[in-house]
Amino acid sequence: MPLLEPKPEALRPGTERRPSPDRVADRLASGTPEPLRGELIALLGPDKVLWKVSDLVRYASDASPYRFVPQVVVVPEDIDDVSALLSYAHGKGRKIVFRAAGTSLNGQAQSEDILVDVRRHWAGIDVLDGGARARVRPGTTVVRANAALARHGRVLGPDPASAVACTIGGVVANNASGMTAGTTRNSYRTVSSLTFVLPSGTVVDTGEPDADARLALAEPQLCAGLTAIKAEIEADRELTARIRAKYAIKNTNGYRLDAFLDAATPVGILRGLMVGSEGSFGFISEVVFDTLPLDREVASALLFFPSLPAAAAAVPHFNDAGALAVELMDRNTLRASVSVAGVPADWAGLPDGTAALLVEFRAPGTGALDVYELAAARVLAGLELVAPVPSVTNAFTRDPRTIAGYWRARKAFVTAVGGARPPGTTLITEDFAVPPARLAEACEALLELQTRHGFDAAVAGHAAHGNLHFLLAFDAALPEDVGRYAAFMDEFCRLTVERFDGSLKAEHATGRNIAPFLELEWGPKATELMWRTKQVIDPDGVLAPRIVLDRDPAAHLRGLKTIPAVEAIADPCIECGFCEPTCPSRDLTTTPRQRIVLRREMMRQPDGSAVERGLLDAYGYDAVDTCAGDSTCKLACPVGIDTGALMKDFRHRRHSAREERIAELTARNFRAVEASARLAVAAADRVGGRLLTSATGLARKAVRPDLVPEWLPQIPGAAPRRLPRTQRVGAAAVYYPACVNRIFGGPDDGPRTGLAASLPRAVVALSARAGRPVWVPGDVAGTCCATIWHSKGYEAGARLMANRIVEAAWAWTVGGTLPLVVDASSCTLGIAHEVVPYLTDDNRALHGALTVLDSLVWAAEELLPRLTVLRKAGSAVVHPTCSMRHLGDEAQLRALAQACAEKVVVPDDAACCAFAGDRGMLHKELTEAATAREAAEVTARHYDVHLCANRMCEIGMERATGRRYYSALLELERATRR
Fold first, then answer.
1. Which of 134, 194, 128, 184 lies closest to 159 in space, CA to CA?
2. DSSP states along 46-109
3. DSSP secondary structure code for residue 967 in this structure
4. What single string gives the DSSP state of each residue in 783-818?
5. What percent of the chain has pLDDT over 90?
6. For residue 505, which of 159, 138, 158, 177 has the smallest C-alpha distance?
7. What are the pLDDT digits (tens) for 855-910?
8. 152, 392, 560, 786: which has the fewest C-beta neighbours closer than 10 Å?
9. What separation in angstroms does the CA of 94 have from each of 112, 257, 271, 541, 890?
């Protein structure tokens, strides 16, 4: 064992706790039981079977109020793996559930037996026919698919609010629609063809001309069964009419019986049935969509009404005017969304009863949009709107930033309201539809029902389509609260069906909480046809048991999860999964959601239980060590949960007093440490990388991998010993070269290819060339942005260095009269924002006077307009860093690249590289996992230059791609040099 290996007990929850009734049983403390574990490893290989108790727990939760712990998690790489797994399940009597993003709201992504992760190895999109069609793999997020299509002026039809996280497999399997899809743009209407694996293992591509012939040969009984059900439905006029009527409004409850009416052959029927089947008919491995035009001209308004029924009554008028989206939000939703960045703070003071409509028109050109706006103006003239707080305008706008703010508030409905729920309560998301003409009446009935059962629910929805969502919070650990929820559900379902003839699930699919009410909505005849269809396709019941069909009338009350309190920063989490696509460690260890899920399970356990010990043993590496600490999860989370900050705190908890003292001593003597580091890098050029790699490898084994960096071949040579000479008099800004650029030099072949010898020399030269000279203080050595310390949880060292840099910057900038330009985006973020919690009160006041600019912003806004570009590269690919996302200066990186190259590409899969200072040297596997998709995209073609603006990220991307990355300012200096 390494000398300074931290003790897992350091992260044991210190609060007093009582065991929860839904805690994981001790029998799973050792993980997946035998022979299941051994048999699956023998079948698929050890890398595809996740069996530790921590694996089972982190996959036990999705975005729903349910929690079922799988016996094992399998991560297949291809269809052969899936077929082998299905064959195994048949032979052993096992059950399988497929899980992609885990954003489902009704427990569809949970299994009590084998859970299959079909996100990790199943991403990708091929744009076909100039964008008219797209072939998409099931692990691809909607946002990623649309990014590829946008270049062709096209978009997918389904547009769920969770598009940033949900994947195509789940969208199709649930027939999720969203704000604009309605009944005409959803998956059922826009899927051209599917490739799927049936429970028997038969692979079907519905786009193949001979698909029916092949299916008839491989599955004659299935074909006969589907044909018989089709004939039975078509012979029953009353049932046929009922089916058609049910799909006149949005409906995802049960199986798509209209597939039997819309298709002529078994393959066509299966294509329709697979949509909305929730993984119970097979595994969808590929989807070909017919795409839709991307209308780029947009006008939107957020209109406020005195009541929810008043807002609902206005919806038909905007529908008639041609609005593509009409979204409803009640007072609770609007007030909760104040937690979302950019939402007006005065919404917190909206009076009771207030509601709003977000109305949007889209058109291919400005002329068509003008016509829509005239029609909207006529509707507005007849409405009685209110303006209860100053920020309300009740006017249409074409400003993209304002419109984006409206949509952030709307899309944060579940997460923002859920984050504001009372601590310890479980969140239920209901989703139903009524005929749009009866929306106002349904709103009144819903409000009355909620009040009578003691719920202060939040309501929002796709009002244009008569589709409402509402959220209920209750404590699943209290039997009386569960009983109150059960009584509400019984009455709500009867109300929706018997009074409004509505859909109990409009777009979230049946799931566990509506399965018991399926027959209430569809009646016995149609429901039995659904059971027969399941029997025909999956006679052994291998796939997704109890998720669509369940004869237990209390099934929706089984498996409700408790929400024990955890650290305050993470406690609002509703486990929605929006954070996961942006997490660098998502394909290596855990995601932010899973880190919180694991922590909650620790809180459910009695102190010292076998399960707790197993979770703690794994948590150090899986959660704490392999967190990049980039905090992009905070940007993705609608309520701003910063799991990265939590992991840094956990790192601090694991430190011994001795480690903290050494870290503080390092900060106190950083001038000498910095000089020694530069000399060591210079010496490395002479010693050779292989020897250093071997030496650091031995040290890592002896001390601790999380303390000793591994020497990597991509580490550049040393920076010049002296910084460029500059003059304070006449300087337009103070230039602060980050310590990383004072230690490491530019690209090793920079001088040969015409680049400046170092980034500081390039910044100084560019600024002088533009007539905006900068001054480099003579005493920058020994100062740092403090990220080195706070990213590792060394609080004493972080405090010392944070206060040192702020005091120095205040003096350099003459009390903030000059801007401070920083040449590494992570260091800019550190000085501008991350040092603040560590400052004394006096230094916090000094910090408030500073203007800290990233060198990208300085170059793009102050220098570029004053420079003449003399030469350009043919093509450039850029890597925006996570710090740039936090700072909001990705556009400036692109602007500099566009000045230097004829064609500029930002990879669709660009994300945090996870090099994170030196974390990529501590855990190189983290950077390899984080950059895999972006690297594949970059290396698929040639680029003349590869640009970034953070030295350590450049090293990480060079390691990932084998291509030389360097600062965009180095390229700009070369492009403008005479």
1. 184
2. GGGEE-SHHHHHHTSB-SSSBB---SEEE---SHHHHHHHHHHHHHHT--EEEESS---SSSTT
3. E
4. ---SHHHHTTT-HHHHHHHHHHHHHHHHHHTTTTTS
5. 84
6. 177
7. 999 999 999 999 999 999 999 999 999 999 999 999 999 999 999 999 999 999 99
8. 152
9. 10, 28, 26, 9, 49
Structure tokens at 514: 């509506």
Residue 2: what pLDDT?
A: 44
For residue 22, count other CB atoms closer than 10 A to its CB. 18
pLDDT of 787 over the 80 cut: yes
* Number of separate helices (H) and strands (E) present in the chain: 41, 25
Mean model confidence pLDDT for the chain: 93
Cα torsion 550, 551, 553, 559 to 10°: value is: -40
- Tens digit of each residue's pLDDT (9 = 90 or more) over 140-193: 999 999 999 999 999 999 999 899 999 999 999 999 998 899 999 999 999 999
Pair 975, 967: CB distance under 8 Å: no
Q: Which helix (H) or strand (E) holds 359?
A: strand 355-363
Question: If we measure between CA atoms, which residue out of 531, 297, 575 comes closest to residue 419?
Answer: 575
Specify whether the CB–CB gap between 839 and 802 falls below 8 A: yes
DSSP assignment of 553-583 equals TTGGGTTBPP-----TTTTT-----TTGGG-
CA dist., res. 455 & res. 488, Å (int) = 9
CB 806 within 8 A of CB 852: no
Closest CA to 641 of 574, 697, 704: 574
Give CA 802 to chain center in angstroms: 31
For residues 108 and 545, give the distance between their C-alpha atoms in angstroms, rounded to a whole number.
10
CA proximity to 778, closest of 743, 814, 727, 744: 727
* Distance between CA atoms of residues 490 and 501, nearest Å: 15
Q: b/e per residue, 243-272, with b = 16+ CB within 10 A? A: beebbebbbbbbbbbbbbbebebbbbbbbb
By DSSP bridging, strand 96-99 and strand 72-74 are unpaired
Residue pair 47/28 in contact (Cβ under 8 Å)? The answer is no
CB atoms within 10 A of CB 629: 24
Longest dimension (CA), the chain: 92
CA atoms of 793 and 649, how far apart (whole Å): 6
Rounded Cα distance between 96 and 108, Å, is 12
Answer for the pair 298, 360: CB distance below 8 angstroms, yes or no: yes
Q: Per-residue pLDDT tens for 340-381? A: 888 899 999 999 999 999 999 999 999 999 999 999 999 999
Q: How confident is the model at residue 8 (pLDDT cuts 50, 70, 90)?
A: confident
Question: Rounded to the nearest 5 degrees, what angle is found at the Cα of 198, between the Cα atoms of 42 and 80?
Answer: 35
Q: What is the CA radius of gyration of the chain?
A: 29
* 280 φ, ψ (degrees, to nearest 5): -95, -5
Omega before 907 within 30 of 0, i.e. cis: no
Tokens read off for 194: 């599917």
Do 639 and 58 touch, CB atoms closer than 8 A?
no
Per-residue pLDDT, averaged over 378-392, amounts to 95
DSSP class of residue 498 equals: I
Q: For residue 809, what are the β-bridge partners?
A: none
* 399 backbone dihedrals φ, ψ, rounded to 5°: -70, 120
Strand segments (E) across 731-799: 733-736, 774-775
CA dihedral over 9, 12, 18, 22, signed as positive or negative = negative
Name the residue with tokens 């310890």: 424
DSSP, collapsed to helix, strand or coil, labels residue 451 as: helix
Q: Which pair of structure tokens corresponds to residue 665?
A: 């001593």
3-class SS at 327?
Answer: strand
Q: Is the pLDDT of residue 844 over 80?
A: yes
Strand partners, 877: 905, 946
The strand pairing partners of 203, in sequence order, are 197
Q: Report residue 306: phi and psi, to 5°.
A: -75, -15
